[in-house]
Each structure stands twice: as C-alpha cells, then as structure tokens.
Design brief:
The chain is an alpha/beta fold and 253 residues long. The protein is built from 7 helices and 11 strands. It binds zinc ion (ZN).
C-alpha cells in the first residue's frame, strides 16, 4: 500500500459506512463528546460513537467508575420498583424462570425472588456480582459475559435488560447469546436512553445520557423496530416515559 492509499484507508475508516441497526448508509455528525465522534443514522435515528472505543479504553474507564456503591435504602427502593415492573409488565406465576441481564448488585433478581420466581442474574462486573451474592443470596448469579453462562441457565420465561444495551460494543452478538437462553414466547423488558425523545437537546452531546466510552449506542423507537425483529423478537409495546427513556416490552418468537 502506498502512503496515499494508507491515508485514504484511514480517512474512510473514520467515517461510518453502514448503520449496524437498519443497514442505511446516510449519516450526519451529531457532535463530539470526550473526544469521541458521534454520528446519527438518517434512516433509523440510531446514534453511535464512531470509531468505537477499543476494549482497553472501555476497561480502563470501568476500573475507575463505580456504579455499584450500595446504599441500602436506595437498593431497597430499587427492589420495590423492580417488583412493580415485574408485576406490571411480565405477569409472572410462581416458579417461572427469570433472568436479569446486567443484574448489577442484584436488586432485580431479589425482586423476582420475592415474587416467587426462580431468579437468576448475570453481570460482567465481578465486584457488583460479589455484592449481589452477599446482599441477596437467594438468587443465582454469574459474573462474566453472557456468552459464558452455565449450560443449564436456559428456558427462561422472563428477562430484564435495564440500561445495558447502550454500553455494548456488539449488541447483535449479545442478543444472539441472550435469545438462546429464553423460551419461545418469553417476555423481555428492556430500557435504554431514548435518542428519539422530544426532550433530547438539539446539541446531542449536551444530553446527560451522552458519556462515551460508557454509552456508545443510542437507540430510538425506529431503531428498536429494526433491531428486535432482526433477532426474532416482536415488540409487544413501547411504554411511554416522561423521561428520555426508551422502555420496550418484547416477546421472543
Ligand atoms: Zn440506521
């Protein structure tokens, strides 16, 4: 490769070529945050950091960043809120199997357990899972990637995925691994920041949810309408939120 060719390749790599959600090829720059460039897909409104941060950059940030500090009163409120959500959206029966993808300190798992469900949780962060095991020992926990779950973690009826997808470098791979663990007909309740919400500022990086490299992918309803069916989920409904939050209930086909 000549020097000019190398320079051209580098230039091309700095521009996105295809939307990973809708496949579209038209983008607008949406600003820069902490040195990371953000683009908006004109097809589906998906916003994304490009180029993606390296895994080393992401790991370095997470070592410094602790979201798992346990304030008991706050944790108990989270358990009660998760119980309300489970009852409202999933309508479970005792003995049904529940899994929280990205379970953090286990408040969702504990909520499911209190409702009589078989409760499981997985999180990549070992420290959070350690707290979960101590605080809420009735749950089953796994620290690691969703691809590394024990074999018998399967046939789940219900899944939570709360504020996880915006962190994932490869949401497609994650969803394939996750889907394999659910029963046909299983319900998934997912939340993530809503880049299409009317309250998101025009100056995108001014939005409080924009903090790469932790948040790298920002969905919209339209983006979800492409993404979930592509992984064999039908959207049951979007739940309206006054906050800039996308909440979706989906069913595995
Ligand atoms: Zn798109």
């Amino acid at each position: 490769m000549t020097q000019t060719e190398t320079a051209k390749t580098a230039e091309a790599a700095s521009e996105p070529s295809r939307c990973i959600i809708c496949g579209g090829g038209t983008f607008r720059p949406a600003g820069v945050s902490s040195g990371y460039r953000i683009f908006r897909c004109m097809g589906c409104g998906f916003h994304f950091v490009h180029p993606l941060p390296s895994l080393e950059e992401i790991a370095a940030i997470y070592e410094k960043y602790s979201s798992n500090v346990l304030y008991s009163a706050k944790a108990e409120r989270k358990v009660l809120r998760a119980m309300k959500q489970i009852k409202r959206y999933l309508k479970p029966k005792p003995g049904d199997r529940f899994i929280d993808f990205g379970c953090n300190i286990g408040t969702g798992v504990e909520a499911a357990h209190r409702l009589g469900l078989e409760a499981y949780g997985v999180d990549i962060d070992e420290e959070s899972v350690g707290i979960a095991r101590n605080e809420y020992p009735a749950g089953h926990y796994h620290a690691g990637a969703v691809e590394s779950l024990p074999e018998d973690w399967k046939d789940f009826d219900f899944a939570f995925m709360i504020e996880v997808i915006e962190h994932l470098p490869d949401p497609h791979a994650y969803f394939e691994a996750m889907r394999a663990r659910l029963k046909p007909g299983a319900l998934l309740y997912l939340t993530t920041p809503d880049a299409g919400h009317w309250r998101v500022p025009k100056d995108f990086p001014a939005w409080q949810e924009v903090f790469p490299p932790q948040h790298i992918h920002y969905f919209t309803r339209t983006a979800m309408q492409h993404f979930l069916p592509a992984h064999g989920f039908e959207i049951v409904r979007f739940v309206w939120s006054p906050k800039t939050r996308l909440k979706v209930l989906a069913r595995k086909l």
